[in-house]
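Bench notes, bay 3.
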Amino acid sequence: MTGLTDEDIAMARAAIGRSERRREVLDTQSLRRFSVAIGGEGDVGGRRPVLAHWAWFLPTPLDGEIGADGHPLRGGFLPAIAALPRRMFAATAIRFEAPLLLDAEAEAVTRIADVRHKAGRTGELVFVDIERSIAQRGAVCVTERQTLVYRAAGDGAPLALPTPDGAAHVAAEGGAVWTPSTVQLFRFSAVTFNGHRIHYDRPYATAIEGYPALIVHGPFVAAKLAEMAAGSGVLAHFAFRAQAPCFVDQPIRLGPAGDGAFHAIRCDGAIATVAQAGYR
């Protein structure tokens, strides 16, 4: 039992409708760093990363506003949900309405759209849906709805052990094999200002959160799939859902799955991430 009470749930749901507004110049250098961190060439004057908007409007907590896990302390913009200490990125759905203009000011409006409580196989879960729109010159360019999941502390997922079937998936044609390194995880954490320690602090990830190795960021995998999807045309929308964790130094097959779908498949054959692309 987590000790999550009806009052806890009511307090979390009281955050629905909470919003914040930020203005920022979408500078070229931040986008160049993001491009390089996800494996691009950094030539953002030409083809930009599909998920370019992730390069800006990053969380910037002060030193005293950071929790033990590296995330911002509970109880700020997001609901606290103190009884469920683990928080992770679960899914997102993005619509691309117009290109973002570089080195020009933009406004992001972020709103908590929903808070949902569920009982899963591994215990109680709380899902928080966050809507964000980014506009320039009075017109919305990008909209996104992210889902975060809060869960109880406990042992993390076991290491993915290579299997013959899984190896066949990784070696299959029609995709690419990516083996994320510790340095790549660190760079992605840095470029997205993500302090969650499961991505770069192995002693914390293994001893505190119970994982067997560093965890690959779900958004990092999504960015790789989005770049692959963009090879087939101009994206109108892109969505992904994380289903299983990927681990550092293990091969991941990124590839199409038909009808605009893309999968990230681990070395044990498990589908780690499911993505869906729609084109103009």
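Next record in the batch:
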Amino acid sequence: MNIAEYQGTLLHLLGQINQNMAGIFPCFYSIYDLTPAQAKPLAILRQEGDMTLGDLSRHLMMAGGNLSPLCKKLESLGYLTRNRCREDERSVVITLTEKGNSLLIKIEEDMSALCQAAFTQQTEEDLASIITGLTKLNALLTGLKDNLNKGAQHNET
């Protein structure tokens, strides 16, 4: 397989994966009147812990100007707090509240209950193989991105 064929296959599969995920996860969020865009920052905060608005923006690959109103909305719902950083008042630290954490636990419980049948049809080896494959894909893409960044830096000099 040449690079162009690999790229085409990869883009096709990633597109299908995104479509499938977009068809699954909103069902779980909508029960709690959340959009996927609202659920993502909450999930990242739960996994990574407190972070600045800028760091959260980079995790989500979303402009800070778009994320800020989203965080204000989530704060008004009681799912997170926004506080100025003591060391640098230009930065805003985003923290998941207990209410936000409890909501994510409920969503995870709903997902587990409804998806258990599909997962039990897979062997542990198959599930591990999927994670291994995605980890390898991520490493490949990280390497490509690093090479592109090095090439761009080299061209600037």
